[in-house]
Amino acid sequence: MGSPSSSKEEKIPSGLSFREFLSMINNGLNKAGSKIPYDKENRYHRWVRRGAIIAASLIIFVLIWWNVAYIVNSAAIPLPTKVWGAFINLFTYGDPISGMSMWSHIWISLQRFIGGFVIAILVAVPLGLLMGYSKTLSEFMNPVLEILRPIAPIAWAPVLLFATGYTWGPILVVFVGIFFPLLSNTIFGVKKIDRNMVDAARTLGASNYQIFYKVMFPCALPYIMNGVKIGSGIGWMCIVASELYASYGGGIGYFVGMQAQIGFWPNVFVGIGIIAVLGILTTGIFDYIHKVLTKRMGME
Question: According to the model, what pLDDT value does residue 291 have?
Fold first, then answer.
């Protein structure tokens, strides 16, 4: 019986060693790979391309951050390695100031965000559908809304916190931030509905409620989801800013404010990173839902 090496030699072209044969195969694969065209219809190609772009973007971002930290040479801009160390320490031992775990801070902010988001949905969507449908109601509401619209949501934070307390204050600030983009997109979606569809439904005997529920709302839904996607990003800005005003109660904004006051800058950057991740996750979820609805409604 021959040795393993001799059996390998019997399977390769004559005149080549096993190592040369492997080298030839490797070179052939490299050449073949370089000739494979990018197919935008292939989801695996799209995933690889998107992953490569994201990886390159993050690497460049970290390198820029590293260089800025060295150039500025300020404790307020720590190196990425120090922030990573603070991240591990915080999620292992918790917040050294309040004694709360980081998951508790995240959950508190998430609850406030969800509360403000739900209230905004319940108020802005029905009001937007009615204002888009009724010209009289739109003319009645527009003067008040146009006065309030330019006011930054964070300007309401000290008022709402003082008036309603640290439980409802941040929730209402989030509500204000999400309300206006959601309302505007809902009104726009209703106005984009083909009036022939409404007339056809009315001709077939549909009541105003049925037109409202079965025609207007489904047709405006993709636009509503676009407003949700935009509003969710603003909502996270609002929740963090409102928590910065709060002197207690927890939350990521509260954590960032307390850490900044005592100069624990790596911890501050950890909080900022958590806010970014939460914002990306919620916006990504709503963006996906928006794309699915848009595709199903034939509006791509």
Answer: 78
What residue spans of the chain are helical by DSSP H? 4-11, 18-35, 43-72, 80-93, 102-133, 135-148, 157-191, 195-203, 208-211, 217-245, 252-261, 265-296
Residue type at position 241:
A
Q: How far apart are CA 71 and CA 181, in angstroms?
A: 40
Please answer whether residues 29 and 21 qualify as being in contact, where contact means their C-beta atoms are separated by less than 8 angstroms.
no
Quote the pLDDT of residue 6. 44
DSSP 37: P
- Nearest to residue 285, comparing CAs of 131, 128, 88, 113? 113
Looking up tokens 């052939």, which residue turns up? 28
Provide the CA 117 distance to its chain's centre, in angstroms.
14
Amino acid present at 105 = H
Distance of CA 274 to the CA centre of its chain: 12
Domains of the chain (ranges, CATH numbers):
4-77 (no CATH), 82-296 (1.10.3720.10)
Identity of the amino acid at 173:
V
